[in-house]
Amino acid sequence: MASWLNRGGRAGSAFRLSSGGQPSSSEARFFAQPVVARLLLMGSLLSSGAIPARAEPTFFTARIAPIFEQHCVGCHGPEKHKAGLRVDSFENVMRGSESGEILKPGDLKASELFRRITLPASDDEVMPSDGKPLLSADEITLIRLWIESGASATRSLAEYPDAPVPKPTRQAHVPLAPDWTPRAAEIAALEKEIGVKLVPRSKIPTDGLVVRTASAPQRCDDAALSKLAPIAALIVDAELARTKITDEGLKAMATWENLRKLDLTRTSITSDGLSACAALKKLEVLNLTDTAVDDTGVARLKEMPMLQRLWLFGTKAAPVELPAKLAAH
Ligand code: HEC
């Protein structure tokens, strides 16, 4: 997604009241996290020296470590080590718990770890404990294959051709907007007429549309925006930097009920126009860089309950505490 949100260079000018490096829930949605988590995990496994760095993925890093990471490390990792056990690296798994080894390579029956993950849910000793979801049949099969074949750190993924391939864990999808697909023809016609791009935000049809103007921002003006009214509910992100829109255009946008992100960089909007924006109850990110907005305009944004990020670089406005952040306190 090419947008100013991703341009690291501007980060310093972003006025951001975030409590540390925690990504907000919206960012977690916008930028998929699991890949990062997995890379970090692999990084920590590599840096522990347990796994030789080589291009071919090992069965342990590709299939076993992610299971531990997802289901066990919360209680058996760097923060908590219940029973003196950590399973966040190959070495730690092999080191075992305070009562000794938890698995015996090649011997399922002598492997406490395997016994624990295959107990019935009602058993006091089942792992994960505390009513957390138990491992799937595929996950148990992977761990079984791994222990049976010697619990190796180095055997490659290719050596387990029959191992089940885990299904990617899909996060429950929250629709951001109505399904746009039944209106594809109407959308295409509008693109042609107005000269803006209306791009699906993802492959998921209820993730909404992004209004892109970057190839010809000067063609987009207030009249163009008002023509988008019939599909306003489908728009979740409007990239309007350097367009000709004015406060009049902002008024037209007050009905864009599903808008999450709005970029007004270098437009001629003013503080007056922002009173219309207060109706955008779902807006999370607003870029006002290099506009004439001042404190009176920013004060109007206090009514936006979801606003988490506000760019005021190049304006006369002083930083404010954002509503979404206040609510979190
Ligand atoms: C919610 C916290 C929690 C989670 C999640 C969890 N465990 Fe545990 N685990 C514990 C606690 C507490 C103990 C100590 C009490 C006991 O032995 O039942 C324990 C004990 C164990 C033991 C026995 C250690 C010994 O030497 O007695 C093993 C093996 C184990 N866990 C493996 C796992 C594995 C594998 C996972 C993930 C599939 C997992 N645990 C997930 C809390 C957890």
Summary of the model, kept short:
The chain is of the alpha/beta class and 329 residues long. It has helices at residues 25-30, 34-47, 59-71, 90-95, 112-117, 137-148, 184-194, 222-227, 247-253, 274-277, 295-300, 323-328; strands at residues 14-15, 197-200, 209-212, 235-239, 261-263, 285-287, 309-311.
CATH topology of the largest domain: Leucine-rich repeat, LRR (right-handed beta-alpha superhelix)
> Which range does the strand content fall in?
5-15%
Output mean pLDDT.
83
Bound molecules: heme C
CATH superfamily of the largest domain: Ribonuclease Inhibitor
Could you say which overall geometry the principal axes of the C-alpha atoms support? elongated
CATH class of the largest domain: Alpha Beta
Question: What does this entry look like structurally?
Answer:
By secondary structure, the protein is α/β, with parallel strands linked by helices. It has two domains: 29-159, no CATH class; 175-328, Ribonuclease Inhibitor (Leucine-rich repeat, LRR (right-handed beta-alpha superhelix), Alpha-Beta Horseshoe). The chain contains twelve helices and seven strands. The protein has a seven-stranded mixed β-sheet. Helix 2 packs across helix 3 (59-71). The longest helix is centred in the N-terminal third of the chain and has 14 residues, at 34-47. It starts with 13 loop residues before the first strand and ends with a helix. Residues 71-72, 74-76, 82-83, 85, 87, 97, 99, 102, 112-113, 116-117, 125, 127-130, 132, 135 line the site of heme C.
